[in-house]
Amino acid sequence: MVGFGLHLKGAIQGTRRYTGPMQLLALHTKRAFTLCLPLVFAGAQLAAQNSQPPFDPHSLDSHFENDQVILNAPHPGINIPGAATGKNWHNHPLNRVMVYIHTGGEKLTYLDGSVEDLKWQAGTVRWSPAAGYHYSELPPELDPRVWKTPAFTTPMIVDIGIKKPGYPGKVAGTALDPLRADPKDFTLVFENSQVRVLRLKMGPRQSVPMHEYTLNRVMVYITDQTVRETSPEGKAEVARHQDGSASWSGPSKQKLDNLTDKPLETVIVELKSIY
Questions:
Q1: Among the CATH numbers 2.60.120.10, 3.40.640.10, 2.60.120.340, 3.90.660.10, which is that of 178-271?
Q2: Omega into 150 within 30° of 0, i.e. cis?
């Protein structure tokens, strides 16, 4: 679906001995202190930013694959007799969950000549059934990499191919199921026989109470975020995730704290695989 670094440059000015009236000296001291405050606060903010943990080293490779999912599966083109030449004709044999990190769109043209125009906003999530042969184009007016400055360097889409059939019923969960433990911050995006997809939105410095995932899952981070996860036993871990990155997790219980002054958003794709 960058690297970050801030450097502080500064200079220390010498001071001249003052021999004037004491009341003026006090005034000058007050002014100097007032003018220095923004620099002190700015320095503290920069130090806080520089002290952030590195991005999660466990983030998935862009083409991660295991027995249940494949991320951003390659789709090399093939030559199809009688079809338009110079196009990357390909198909998608798996059902997929599409998580769009940036606003954009594409035009899909199928072998039968039908055309599908797709548009999405950042954070949009869609179910994409297995599809026959087609090619895709990104019209300039729908591709933000053409007009956004600076162009984004994180993925446009996180494409999650679902490799196994799933249980057709709904996820029962437990009393700590996210939709029960915190229905305000967790919402259901959609659910079918293979996946249940949730969205988590948290405000600045907000906490989410203890909740439980009973299924394996892919976490897709729509925004940069630094969070603290605390287990029922009190073990806490701090992780920093980059927008467009993803991670793989098994069943777990945790409390979550947003450690930044910015809201965060995460999409959780739970796998309902039956074997």
A1: 2.60.120.10
A2: yes
